[in-house]
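Help wanted!
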Amino acid sequence: MIENIREKLITHKNQVVLLNREGQVVASDNHLFTLLIGSDIADINPFFETIAALVIEENQHIPFNCVIIPDANNKPKYYDIELHTGGTDENPFLIIYDFTEHYEYIQGISQEKNELAISNHFEAAKNRQLVAEKAFKNKFLANISHDLRTPLGAILGFVDLLEKTGLNYEQQEMIQTIRQTTLHAKGLIDDLLDISKIEAGALKIENKTFDFIDLMTHLEKIYVPKMATKHLAYKMEIDASIPNYLIGDKVRILQILINFLDNAYKFTHKGSITLRIKAGTVADKKMLLLVEVIDTGIGFPGNKAGNKKEIPIDSFTKFHTTEIEGHGLGLSIVKKILDLMQGDMHIDSEEGRGTTILVRIPVAIDDKVNTKKQIAVANTYQNVKMSKSYKLLIADDNEINQLLLTKILVKHGGFYIDAADNGRDVLEKVTLKDYDLILMDIEMPEMDGIEATIAIRKHPLASTRNTPIIGLSAHVLDSTITTTFNDAGMSGYVPKPYTREQLFEEMYRVLKIELLPK
Amino acid sequence: MSVSKKIVLVGHYGVGKSSLIRRFVQNIFSDSYQVTIGVHILKKIVPYKGEEITLVLWDIEGKENINQSRASYLLGTSGFIFVIDPTRDSTYQNLKEELIFLEKNYPKIPVIKLVNKSDLIDVEEFKKVLAIQNLEIDFFSSAKTGDNVEHVFMQLVSKMLGA
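Answered by r_m:
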């Protein structure tokens, strides 16, 4: 029985061939290849051409694995071949093993593995190229944004000044148009930057303590006068149980609310706009802000009166970005920011009756003692108590910016102003004179604002070392930049382009100037 | 009896070693990629200076490093062709090390450095890529179009026979 199995399955899978030193066949069992005595072994296949050269050296054992020798039908067969060159009085011999089945299996696996590796290579190369293109695009956008923000800041600043020079009604109207157009351009630049950051995964949601009531006050300050221009009633219904101090991304929450309120403002021509914010369930110091922005505007086309229903966000966004001219990217950005915050939004709309946007924004409650404050219109710079005149140094390499800042400060009153063109100039000036505050541009030749701030913070004289410094930069405010400013030792930061109110709000805070009620 | 010379094509998998040999010996080309495992040997007799030379062409399984190849495959080699694929930088990133390995283990055996698949690239641009990496290449060829294939093998014959 065993002999039968061996004969059938093993013996006929091997062949032994005895050779002479010239590579001719001396004996063969011919189980795999039929070889004639005296024939040249190289006649089987070109593989054996090299054997003749190798048999010259004695006592060698050389294995050749997986040698492909096609059969009579040109079908590949796979063999392991051992060459034993033998001793002085011995004949060299070959043992040939047929491992076709085994190697066919291996071939299938190798085929799959190599194809996958090659395709992965091309996929990875494609991805690398996409990443590089994206990085280039983002850098380009960041640079363009910076370059565009600087002149926009100058325009807005001079518009502010021009407005207060006794213009007639027609001139006032024109100046308002310039302001609105400039603000619109600024909004578009900000949107582009946000989109590029989101795409690059660079937009990070901050988790910092912020004053919720201040946020609401800020919104009221913007929208009460704005809604009045269209004779719309603006109502704010804020749940009194929402704590003052929340943890979240104030800037992005403000961006979301402003976007929805602007949206409502744009599409509502009569009636009212309501901002309603309720506190969701609190668990483990986490809660949801349940925001509703309700308008009585044009609604979503197709949703007939009496059939108020939920609109898919994408359809709504598409309608607002393609059908309504000049709307920009706002809603798309808000949706992406909400996704990053793990919040969500729903839109109910009815044609001709209005739209309700429902947003859920996750926040945390700060441990600080939360004392309730009233929402009040914030003080502006006219209502401050200046106990003395302050010595200010403004550092900016751009003459127009210097001029603008000087005019704003002179108009306010209460400041002695010096100017410096770059960081090195600042260092010279602070050595000669003590200042109450430095307004420091960041991008300056020779020595930039960051380097100058670091140098001042290392100054041997305490009075110089401790001079408050507010950074002014057209770079977009994000966590990386604020960290850089904080690390350098800046006392505050105002992003360009800024309004007078933004500038003075930060100056009052840093200089500890007391605000008086209106 | 004609002179017999063993030529081994080395390089990564998928660079086109089998295709080059098939183009040279049988003048055929297939776009479908068929992995070679082990070794497949073909033969071609070429005329050289009035004599017939038998070229025994060893098409061995592609590896990421030559030292992963079975040593017995490389025994008795008279000439190497190192093939790279210009569309996959991994096939030539370690070219210098691979050539040092051949020089050390097979001294005085001629090696031709060949860029295959030249039909897929801008040759002049790729020469700049090679220059940046300080890599020297002997020939560009395409097994697909047949461009330069015969010439490369004959150049190796010339080197092997010391002319």
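OP: Thanks! One thing I noticed: The two ends of chain A are 112 Å apart (CA to CA).
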